[in-house]
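Re: duplicated header lines in exported structure tokens

Our pipeline writes sequence and tokens for each protein into one text file. With two proteins the header for the second block appears twice in some exports. Here is an export where it did not happen, for reference. First protein block:
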Amino acid sequence: MTLGGDSLLYVVDGGVFGGDGKLSIVDPRARKEIVVINGLGDGAGPAVFHPSGRLLIASATKGILEVNTLTRALTRGPDDPITDAGDVITGLAIDERRRVYAMDPVGCVVHVLEPPPDYHPSRTVTVGGCPSSAAAATVP
């Protein structure tokens, strides 16, 4: 679950193994679910809200998925992920320059991607342990 810049909650349900994950968008003030977006495939996991209005979702089987929060539509699904469809991504972070950091525990690397809409790979950093989650800090 993550809080968006629009003050809505984005809750990912990864579903059962081999099943189809979904995203629930919840209005915490109204205390109700506004919309459900199906089609995340299996392995959908942690999400992060990008300042561009996109919600990025880590997928343990499909790489990185993207939801346009303005149109509330899945724009980069399991058949067209941001990273290679076979990538195992277990965590995401965004830095102050809007770059995307994607944790790959299988390769023991962190993929650094340029901001959307293109997400060009900037570099890959090998880490000592196999990462599972991420956080970004703002440097004063």
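Second protein block, exported in the same file:
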Amino acid sequence: MALDDRQLADELRSRGLRVTATRLAVYRAVREIGGHPDVETIAERVRADIGGISTQGVYDCLAALTRVGLLRRIEPAGSPARFETRVGDNHHHVVCRSCGRARDIDCVIGAAPCLEPDDLGGFVIDEAEVTFWGLCPECASKRAEQPALNGPGADSRQVVGANQRKEG
């Protein structure tokens, strides 16, 4: 085992998880990829590392790593579940509506929960998830470069949909 793998294995053991090649590969993949990878991205990396593993096997490992607090699962509405190694602090996310890229946003309050609901209805709150939505710099730049459809200076080419026939 490489030193890095030994450290990862120690982290698994310290959280009460049995160290398996699959768990180690999944945890290593999330850490190496960085950011907020989805399951398919993680599975591709793991398959390149250790060979065949089912997507369900990757989900199972991610669930175990999340359950013990080594990973955090985020689920932006309409997006696949994503995983990150930044755990144990109070941060939020910004997600691009166009490409789905996610980025961490530090909470200005710093302590969880940073929002105070008006009526808790008996719930004891320990976390608040805030997701900001917009366009990442790359998608915003691409959008700014595209001519407005049917507006002044619009591209004069006709857009033909899949169910339309261009006549003429």
